[in-house]
Design brief:
The complex is a heterodimer of chains A (219) and B (196). Chain A is mainly alpha-helical and 219 residues long. Chain A contains ten helices and no strands. Chain A has one domain. In chain A, α3 runs parallel beside α7. Chain A is elongated and about 55 Å long. The two termini of chain A are 25 Å apart. The two termini of chain B are 21 Å apart. Chains A and B meet through α1 and α5 of A and α2 and α3 of B.
Chain lengths: 219, 196
Amino acid sequence: MTAFLALLGRELRLALRHPADTLAAVMFFVLVAALFPFGVGPEPQALARLAPGALLAAALLAALLPLDRLFGADAEDGTLDQLLLSGLGPAAVCAAKALAHWLTTGLPLMLATPIACAMLNLPTEAWSVAVLVLGLAAGFLSLLGTAGAALTLGARRGGVLLPLLVLPLAIPAVIFGAAGIEAAAAGLEARPYLLLLAALLAAALPLAPLAAGAALRGE
Amino acid sequence: MLRAEALACLRGERVVFADLSFSVAAGDAVLLVGANGAGKSSLLRVLAGLLSPLEGRLLWDGAEALADRAAHARRLRYIGHGDALKPALTAAENLAFYARLWGGQVAPALAALGLAELAGLPARVLSSGQKRRLALARLALAPAPLWLLDEPTVGLDSASVERLGALLATHRAAGGMVLAATHLPLPLPGARELRL
């Protein structure tokens, strides 16, 4: 546990020293959300109908941005060897990486969600659900993305391969997430959709780090 | 005691070494020598458990060493080609991460490699020799019986090589084993050569 916390602490400290990576993801998310009103036109109702899907697509793409360097820098400078020899086990190393990715990307995206909601004219009663949905979906993507990043490590054009591998697997999160926000906007119960998202997260929680660890071990 | 039995290793499509057997007892030092590409680095990675051998067995005190990789990792220190330093962290912070993993004190380890004055500087401003010393300072943190060193003295000045020599001597006097791949003279009196 000490080793897990040591690794997590180191990842967070590095993210604090390079705040540009986190900022880039948040700015990307907000800017994509800001582009929609220009494309869709001045009709507020049309914008509100698009809002749930646009929010999720923008958030998942933004969360993908820092993923291709998740293991890359560590592999190049020899840190990855030391992490694999830390006695933690490769799956635990990957779990710490995924958690650090969520804390440095998913959590800031959650905080920026109200801004994006306002730009997309989402009814205010759905904002809290949108924040929760984006947090859960980003967590799911952090886990899938860690496995994807481990698999594409060392591959030529890994940065292109990673979204191709990860985004199709994230489709269930988009479906349930958008349905949940839509339900909340229509004044319906969003709880079942949130629970389904949480179930996706719970399934990925043990599986993705194991898969990522096996991929790192095979390098 | 570390024993390798008929190890073979594949890199890419090529067998870099095969049927390699040797043993290393407590206090022993082994220098791996051979031309570039002879498989010195690969052998060190196999011994660390980072690379699976194509054939053969690795025994630690008679038991299969790689059966429990985490336990094997805890009894070794590996210094690879890369210095495994983060440019944004200070020298002390870089080392403190490993001190949290393995135990040991940061300040004496830095002092052992003559880095005490550089503790607060970010690793990005260190020279390549200073970075190498910072990587080697990991050896001074907490004892581990097996040291695997890949070209440990690249870029080091003679004073730093002497400091490493003192670390190596203390390690071996306490019953530690050293396997080092190098093209430069290493302060390892009485070391055996293993030609690949």
